[in-house]
Design goal:
Length: about 130
């Protein structure tokens, strides 16, 4: 899920520039969220198994919008253990803290993107700009 955030590497803010919140705060929160994401578990073993899954798709594009899943309890501890310790026992997960951090990151990225589009966040000078 961790993505390279290149727009923060190409566009920035003038020190102490007023943008409703300070640019340093934006970068600090983004950095914090990235550290939360990096430290949260990425794999887990579910305590239930998916008895049935039904993909809900967009009628026009066929894109999967969500998947409705019916979950069931494992009938025995042995059934759980046999599944948990199998090759596909652990599945990718997102903890609640990681999800909240991801939502904050996305809000900051959207805010920064709008600031780029509106000329508030300006391109950093490159070596080419300096030597020209």
């Amino acid at each position: 899920m961790q993505e390279e955030i290149t727009i923060f590497e190409t566009h920035g803010y003038i020190p102490n520039q007023e943008i409703l919140i300070s640019p340093e705060f934006l970068i600090g929160v983004l950095s914090f969220c990235q550290r939360v994401d990096a430290q949260q578990p990425k794999l887990a073993v579910p305590m239930q198994y998916p008895a049935q899954s039904l993909p809900i798709t967009d009628r026009e594009s066929g894109e999967v919008l969500r998947v409705d899943t019916e979950w069931k309890e494992y009938p025995t501890a042995r059934a759980f253990a046999n599944t948990a310790f199998s090759e596909n026992g652990a599945i990718p997960v997102m903890t609640e803290l990681r999800l909240l951090s991801f939502q904050i990151q996305q809000a900051i990225l959207e805010y920064h993107t709008k600031n780029i589009e509106n000329g508030i966040a300006i391109p950093y000078k490159t070596e080419e700009d300096v030597t020209s």
